[in-house]
Amino acid sequence: MQAVGVYPSKKAVGILEHLRPEIQHxxxxxxxxxxxxxxxxxxxxxxxxxxxPPEGSEYLILGHESLGEVGEVGSAVQNIxxxxxxxxxxxxxxxxxxxQPCQAGFQxxxxxxxxxERGIKARHxxxxxxxxEHEQFLxxxxxxxxxxxxxxxxxxxxEKALAHVWQMQLRxxxxxxxxxxxxxxxxLKAVVLGAGxxxxxxxxxxxxxxxxxxxxSRSKKPNPKAELVEAVGIKYISxxxxxxxxxxxxxxxxxxxxxxxxxxxxxxDVLRVLGDNGIFVFTGxxxxxxxxxxxxxxxxxxVVLKNQLIVGTVNAxxxxxxxxxxxxxxxLDRWPDAIRSVITGRFGIEDCHELLLGKAQGIKNxxxxx
Length: 370
Ligand SMILES: NC(=O)c1ccc[n+]([C@@H]2O[C@H](COP(=O)([O-])OP(=O)(O)OC[C@H]3O[C@@H](n4cnc5c(N)ncnc54)[C@H](OP(=O)(O)O)[C@@H]3O)[C@@H](O)[C@H]2O)c1
Ligand SMILES: [Zn+2]
Ligand SMILES: [Zn+2]
Prior knowledge:
Largest sheet: 7 strands, mixed
Shape: globular
Bound molecules: NADP nicotinamide-adenine-dinucleotide phosphate, zinc ion
CATH class of the largest domain: Alpha Beta
Number of strands: 19
Helix content: 25-40%
CATH superfamily of the largest domain: Medium-chain alcohol dehydrogenases, catalytic domain
CATH architecture of the largest domain: Alpha-Beta Complex
Distance between the termini: 13 Å
Order of helices and strands: EEEHEEEEHEEEEHEHEHEHEHEHEHHEHE
CATH topology of the largest domain: Quinone Oxidoreductase, Chain A, domain 1
Strand content: 15-25%
Number of helices: 11
């Protein structure tokens, strides 16, 4: 069958032939790929800065943002049946019994660094006609989410981040768990840095949690990303038009920053204007560049005098996948056109070269398998 992958030793990217998977354990599910999202991680693997084939393989099959349909189930599979739509998670635990996070099912916090990731590190990904996966790593998506469920994986980044934000907010003695029927972000202001798929999905999550939400990104208005976020009640501001100081003046006290820009200069510039008791969540993974100057004294003074928190988050746990599925339902109900228009292009496998190596375009592009 056909798959899309990279040969790091030959510095080659493209369509390759791969054996169809077999069900080799009774808890395994065979999945037919429907759609696979492409993101910056896939494009970076194609520049060979990282990305590791499985042991014994010359190539790595790409793809970690997948939606598929179940074709066959092993005899011990309990909660998944043929015809179900499924979304797989990405990271798999390390083998060390001493790794508490992996042993507890939280490989997103793996403490040994020996985890593997499908489509990224030492395990083939999902950009292939069919794949096999253990039931425990698959999440069933309802049929009515068929045209957007490929967004589950990128949405999990915001889901995990927000789950942690609410735990951290409980450090504030006057915050009670839940506010009755009022969304927890009511009365708070959130800023999202970057208007790529991670930023836009994060911004939608913040609005649904009640935050007054701003997206601070690059391209000047008018542009399609600005139009999309403004359609859901988010204010879009370009840093080419407004400096960080001008932007902060516009917003007022910034309670939360959800960084999804991946550019350290922009992130640290905005960290200077984080508000009282504010939380700054880093999700971006910058490519290594020479060191930059930052106003460290100001930042350190603020962190202390304003009781601020700075936190990073990678990948996602089971709860985040379940929450992303639930939230896509909410988004579809509230903003059906906007959530669908996060997917800006659907392409055949033959377009993989252009999508992976050409100029980045649109918000989320997907490869369709059937
Ligand atoms: N933590 C995790 O587990 C995780 C998972 C996935 C991705 N990520 C990271 O999350 C980040 C965002 O991913 P993405 O896929 O959404 O990226 P993306 O599609 O490349 O979007 C980046 C956004 O940032 C904006 N931007 C770029 N340079 C800027 C600058 N100098 N000033 C202001 N805005 C700027 C871009 O503006 P334009 O619209 O003008 O191009 C774009 O809107 C990346 O760093 C990625 O590695 C992390
Ligand atoms: Zn991705
Ligand atoms: Zn581990």
